[in-house]
Amino acid sequence: MHGALSRSACKLALFGVLLLCAARDGASVPQRGMLFPRESASRELKELSGLWDFRADQSPGRSLGFDSAWYKSRLAETGPVIDMPVPASYNDITQDPKLRDFIGWVWYDREVVVPARWVADKGTRVVLRVGSAHYYSVVWVNGVKVMEHNGGHLPFEAEIGDIIRENPQAPCRITIAVNNTLTLETLPPGSIQHMDDTSKYPNGYFVQNTNFDFFNYAGIHRPVLLYTTPKVYVDDITVVCFLCISGLVSYKVSVLGASTTNVKVTLTDKHGRCVASSSGPSGVLKVTDVNLWWPYLMHDNPGYLYSMEVHMTTADESVAYEDIYTLPVGIRTVRVTSTQFLINNKPFYFHGVNKHEDSDIRGKGLDWPLIVKDFNLLKWLGANSFRTSHYPYAEEILQMCDRHGIVVIDECPGVGIKDIRSFGNASLAHHLDVMDELVNRDKNHPSVVMWSVANEPAAEMPPAGFYFKMLISHTKALDPTRPVTFITDSNYARDKGAPYVDVICVNSYFSWYHDPGHVEVIPIQLTNQFENWYGKYQKPIIQSEYGADVVPGLHSDPPMMFTEEYQKIVLQSYHKVFDQKRKEYVVGELIWNFADFMTAQGSVTRVVGNKKGIFSRQRQPKAGAFILKDRYWRLANETGRLPPWNKYPCLL
Ligand code: BDP
Predict the structure, then answer these.
(1) Positions of E strands within 257-300
(2) Catalytic: which of 148, 185, 395, 456?
(3) 135 lies in the same domain as 168
C-alpha cells in the first residue's frame, strides 16, 4: 500500500491506534457472557445487515474523521459516501486500488428504526452487537461513544437503551469506525514501514508489513444486530459434559440485573421430549439412554443436539422479569492419550482440511451461500474436521459444525508472531485477553474439540518458552476439558512451546519449500519428522498442514510444480507415510488448503493468491480433491460408520 501521508502524519495515525488500545486497557470492561443472540419468548432480534453508508478517511493523518467528529451527524452530511454491504470486507467492493489496499480508519453509518415497544419499555435492554469487525473498532449511537474493541475476529456488544430513550422520536444512528492497522502488539501482528528514500518512494510513503500468508481483509465482517433481553437476564451459560453409564451435563447459569432469581433448566431431545431438568443456577442433568454427539462418518446419527432451555424468573419491586434462552447442547467427551485422540472414549482420526474465511468480492464477509456450499463440499469429500486457520471463524459456521458433526480445531489469530518484540508483556496480555474472549464465545460448541493458541510462531526465540507456557496454562485453566495445541513447523529441535501442548500439530512442505520438485524425498523426510517429534515428546501428532500449489488446469507428466499432477503425487506420497504412522501415534491429517485464497502482493511466489487449494477459490475441484475424496471415504469406511444414505458417495 502506498499512502500520501507525511511521516509525522503517518506516525500520528498509528499513535491514534495505539492510544485507543491503551485507553481500552486502562478501562478494561469485566468479562461478561457472550451468548449468541437468539430469539425466544423474552428476546427479539433486529438484523442490521444490508447497505450502510461508507467513507475511508483518506486525510494525511487518517484522523480527519475524529478531528471533525464524523460520528456527530450522518456521514453523508460531512462528505461523500458510497454504498457498502454489511457484512463484507470493503477491499474488493469497488474498482479503486486505493480502497483495496487502504490502511487506516474507515467509517460506516446507518439509521435504524427501533421498535417503539423496545424504546417505551424501560424493563427492556436493547443491545447492539457486532459479530466482528477487522481490526480495531469504535462505535457510537446518536453521537455517543458506546464501545471500542481491539481485535478483528470476535464479537462485541453494548447496551444502548438509555441512549435511544433520550430522544425516542429520532431515528437511531449507528456509526462504526474501523481501523485495519496491525502493530507489533496486535493479533495477528504487523508493522508499518516508512520508506524514507525519496529517490525511490514518494514523500510519506509507507507499507504495512505482515508475516502471514493471507490478505488483510478489513471492514465489518459479520452481522450487526440489535437484540433485546429483559432488564434481569441470563448473561452466560456454561455446559460441560461427562459420560458414566448415562450422559451428565453439568451447567452453570449466570444472571445479571438482580441478586435473587429462580432458574429452571430443561433438556429436551430432538422430538421435544424432556429428558432431564433441574433448578438453580448450577447443577447436573442426568440423561439416561443418551444420544451422544458423534462426528460425521463416525456414527449413523452424527451431530445429535439436545436443546437446553434456561428459564429465569424474578420479581423486582412491582415488576416481574422472565428470560428464556435456549442453547443447543451436544453430549460428548474429548480426551487424549500418548497415542490417541478420543471422542466419547473412541479413537478419532482427523481426516479434514484447513480453511480460510475467504471468497471473491466478499473477502472475509460472512456469506450464507458460501458457507452452505463449503459444508456440502466437506461432506462430498468425506472430511470429518477442519482447523479454523488462522483466526476464529463466525459462530454461524461453528453452529453448522455442531449440527453436521464436523470436528473443529479452534484457532486464535496468533499467526505470524515472528518479531521478538511481539513476545513482550503487552502482546502476551492481549493474547491472553483474546483467548478469554474466544473460549468464552466457543466453550459450549460440541464440535470444538481443541484450542490452538498460535500458528508457526518463532518458537525458537528465547522468550517463546515463557510466552507459551503462560498462554497454554491460561487456556487450560479457562477450559480444563479440551486439549490445547499450537501449530509448529517441522523443526522439532528448536521448539520451545511443544512441552506444554497436549497434541503436537506439525506443518511441513517437503518437496515444496524444502527440496522443491523432489517428491522422492517425502517418505524419508516425513518419516523422520514424525519419529523425531514422537521420540522427543510421546504425544499424539496431527499433520496440521501439507500441500502444494496448483494453477487449476495446468498439467504435466512427469509432474512439475504448480500442475495438478504434482499436487496429486505430493498428496499420495504423504498419504503412504500417514498410513504407516496412523497405526502408531499420528491422529490426523489436514490438507493445506481447502480452497485457493487471496494473499498480499508482497511475494513473487503468489500468483493472485495462494493456490494450494484442492478446490479453486470458486470451489471447483482440482485433481487433488478427487485423491482426497477417495482417501477420506476409505478412511471413514475403516475407522467409522458410513451413514446409510451415504454408502455410495459417488452418487452424491
Ligand atoms: C504455512 C502457513 C500458511 C501458509 C502456508 C503456505 O501456516 O498460512 O499459507 O504455509 O505457504 O506455513 O502455503
Answers:
(1) 262-268, 274-279, 282-287
(2) 456
(3) yes
